[in-house]
Amino acid sequence: MTRWKPGDPKRAAAPMVRVDQAGEYGAIRIYGGQLAVMGDRSPAARQIAGMAVQEERHRAFFDAMMARRGVRPTLLQPAWKIAGFALGAVTAAIGPAAAMACTVAVETEIDKHYEDQLIALGDSDPELSAAILDFQAEEVEHRETALAAGAESAIGYPILSAVIRFGCRVAIATAQRI
Ligand SMILES: [Fe+2]
Ligand SMILES: [Fe+2]
After folding, report:
1. Does the annotation list 109 as a binding residue?
2. Whole-angstrom Cα distance, residue 13 to residue 23?
3. Is-contact 73 23, C-beta < 8 A?
4. Cα separation of 106 and 114, whole Å?
5. For the CA of 132, the nearest ligand
6. Which label site among 13, 63, 88, 131 has the fewest CB atoms less than 10 Å from its CB?
7. What would the pLDDT profile of 77-118 be if each residue is shown by its tens digit?
8. Is 24 annotated as a binding residue?
9. Does the predicted TM-score (pTM) go above 0.90?
10. Residue 113 annotated as binding site
């Protein structure tokens, strides 16, 4: 294991790696909850399963980076496990459009979150920045896919979107520290 020097940018980035791993894990749990309700046969379910595969790749990267850098996971992991799955299951139970609305809301916040991180990192941690840039592009694709699949036709879309986006912001803020 590498020994960190004071002021090491990789050490400074530890809270970022922690929240990103938690977020990708949360995304997998959301899609897991949706697919548990939707099954795997409908067109929407197949699109969601495809997005979930990409989230697995994102999570695997952050898992490996945490292990290499000695970053501890968030203590809120058990909460993310339950809350993510519940959010997925509830939105999917409302209907396919609400499931897609969930993805639009989550990815909107994640896109902003990754953008903020890229700005904060500058050129201090090229390995992390390259991964974030790569994953951010896929998160934006997920948002576009979900919009094209009719997310905005979900009943109560504005409130649903606002509630989920607020939840994401709270989760991001807490996972960096706890
Ligand atoms: Fe992701
Ligand atoms: Fe995503």
Report:
1. no
2. 15
3. no
4. 12
5. 1
6. 63
7. 888 899 999 999 999 999 999 999 999 999 999 999 999 999
8. yes
9. no
10. no
CATH class for the region spanning 10-177: mainly alpha
Q: What gap in Å lies between CA 36 and CA 43, rounded to an integer?
A: 15
d(CA 56, CA 59) in angstroms, rounded, equals 5
Q: Tell me the residue type at 51.
A: M
Q: What are the domain boundaries of the chain? A: 10-177
Ligand nearest to the CA of 24: 1
Token pair for 123: 């050129």
Q: How many residues does the chain have?
A: 178
Q: CA-CA distances (angstroms) from residue 120 to 87, 116, 138?
A: 30, 6, 20
Ligand nearest to the CA of 59: 1
Alpha-carbon distances, residue 19 vs 14, 49, 62, 114 (angstroms): 9, 23, 10, 11
